[in-house]
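Fold sample X.
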Amino acid sequence: MQTRKLNVMQVILNLEVGGAQEVVRTLVEYLASGECTPIVCTFKDGPLRCEIEKLGVKVEILPARRHSIVALPLFIADMIRIWRELTRLVREYDVQVVQTHLLTTLDFLTLLLRYTTSACIVLWTFHSARFELTAAQLRRHKWLLKPKRYVHRQLYRLAAHFVSGFIAVSEQVKISMLETIGPVQDKITVICNGVDIKRYSQSSDKTSTRHELGLDANAILITQVGTLKGVKGHRYMIEAMPAIISQYPAANVLFIGDGELGETLQAQAAAMNVDSHVHFLGNRRDVPALLAVSDVFVLPSLWEGLSMSLLEAMASGLPVVASEVSGTVQVVLPGEMGYLVPPGDVPALTEAIKQVLVNPERAQMMGDKGRRHVAANFSAQKQADEHLALYRRLLGCIG
């Protein structure tokens, strides 16, 4: 007997270029090729919408939240308006499973769908080991940060009794959730992020790509992919460059991504006289081709959940130098696929990069081992299969 396809709604804050957004794009692609019909809902349009729609997956833009809880009547009106639109879409698509990403406060609104619509499963996904509200998420009323954090923590503890389950993208994220929310391990399922292996197994002409970037054919490319914000640690990579250039004058850094610190980082590179070796490429959709011609991938983050860019780099066969933080330690075997260094430790970051560059043959062996490791343990197909198994198990418990 043929199993009925599940209608699964993925709700994410926005469709800008980012790790969680790439998780959703990859997940719906592989779910759509199996036993699911995915729908993506977002509160803010972005570049990934076009890519998702090309997969044949429907994208719906939800009304954005406009008011803080400080303006309580308007905040309540916002919540009612969003809830009504979510309810309409759940009914229109006959959704059985709702899964959220990056919603924070709006997570609690989606919980109502479990009791008022056909969506009998509601799952909240946590992408970072530090998932609590941050100051950057409060554009105004910064004084509300501590009270909001306290309220969020209490609400998560209460909601744990009613939500169908939590998904953590790494074991370290699960540990962080248990520390913040409490002993809810029976509600948490770890499903590691997965990468589209085929997409990152391409070859590229190193000479022509370097020429297109305005670099010499023998340029050494150290690549970092990620939003230009403090947590990603770009400044540490810039601080490491003088010592690297002194030993490897052909070394260049490619920063792929945009963000609030763009001008600050460019000024830092100029002040350290390394700006001719540091290249800000902005958001690019040819990341697989750029990784294919790179020599080493760096991820000097202060914390992570489980970095998609790290998985993509390893799937491309690159040796990696990364901070020893949540998620990363679950993926990289130090000394075998690259090196792990303490977060914020510039001398250690510098030395690890030099260790990769000094022995190209060993670097290639590291990259090859990393590629095999990711293909076996962190593929997009494995990620989709584990999600589907979770959906079926939870629906079976209800049925």
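Fold sample Y, listed below.
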Amino acid sequence: MLLTGLTDDYSHDGRSILELINTSVLPNALGAHRPTALRLGQSLKQIDAPFGALDQAALKLSTLALASGHGGNDGLYDFIEGLIGSWNSRRDAIAGPIKEELEGAEFQGDPIDESQSAQVIARANALVFEAEFWSFIF
């Protein structure tokens, strides 16, 4: 959609793969902030993609929780499932603003807010770090 210049009235799931697109063909709002848009997209992938870092850590820990053998009566199971639930809530709170920022730049011509983007990227990075930390611990 981005490369055709067409727009639609629905929210997109995902992002344009800016790594493969020449800056000269990007809308001005996106091209002017390409490095930040790239970081936003990469952060989104790490927290929202099926095989991103967050899902990899959640899969590892969820498997451990299930293997603990006690279901809902096991403290380890409860801890891990609570941790993953927290990650999912935080992921949703972070992914939404990233998608809105990218979609606004890609299709509405809205310039990327560098300050807001830096904050949301830092939150995404912190979430991935936490997930990888717990994955390493267990």
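Sample Y note: Residues 20-137 form one domain.
Also: The chain has one domain: 20-137.
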